[in-house]
Amino acid sequence: MALDKERLWKLFLLKAKFAASGAVATTVDYVLYLVLVNGTFSPVAANVIAYSCGMVVNFLIQKRYVFNLQGSTGRAFLLSLLVSLGGLTLSTGIIYGLTRFPFFNEYQFITKLIATGMVFFYNFYFKRYVFERKFI
């Protein structure tokens, strides 16, 4: 039983570190998104650009501070890129769908927040697999 509690605690701490690294990358993503969407970019185009920049920041932080890399950096980056493309697809789909409603189209900061929250768990489990080759 103690082993189960220990594993759960380690998983919790890993998620906390992932959330902290994600907060930095999300800040890059979120701020850039708002700058672009309030400029001349559509919400979908702004999301693709901002999410991509956040993705690179996220990879660098997670490689250094969150996960214990198992395998080559190049392999991890390519797999992380594939996972991030899945997250980008989910996030962009959510933003596209929500901006069809006048409220969410007007309040892009809420739209982006909802998309980010929904993609968090997808990213955690798949990125953990990329870096450490395990889901749980």
Written account of the structure:
This protein is mostly helical and 136 residues long. It has helices at residues 2-37, 43-66, 73-98, 102-106, 108-132. The longest helix is centred in the first third of the chain and has 36 residues, at 2-37. The chain has one domain (14-132). The chain has 5 helices and no strands.
Annotation keywords:
single chain; 136 residues; mainly alpha
Strand and helix layout:
Blueprint: H1 2-37, H2 43-66, H3 73-98, H4 102-106, H5 108-132
Helix pairs in contact: 1-2, 1-5, 2-3, 3-5
Q: What spatial form do the alpha-carbon principal axes imply?
A: elongated
Measured as a percent range, the helix fraction is over 70%
Q: List the quaternary state of the chains.
A: single chain
- The proportion of strand residues reads under 5%
Q: How confident overall, as mean pLDDT?
A: 87
Number of helices: 5
Uncertain runs are none
Question: How many domains comprise the coordinates?
Answer: 1
Largest sheet, if any?
none
What's the SSE pattern?
Answer: HHHHH
Structural class: mainly alpha
Count of DSSP strands: 0
Radius of gyration: 16 Å
Distance between the termini: 17 Å
Structure described in brief:
The chain has 136 residues and is mainly α. It has 5 helices and no strands. The longest helix is centred in the first third of the chain and has 36 residues, at 2-37.
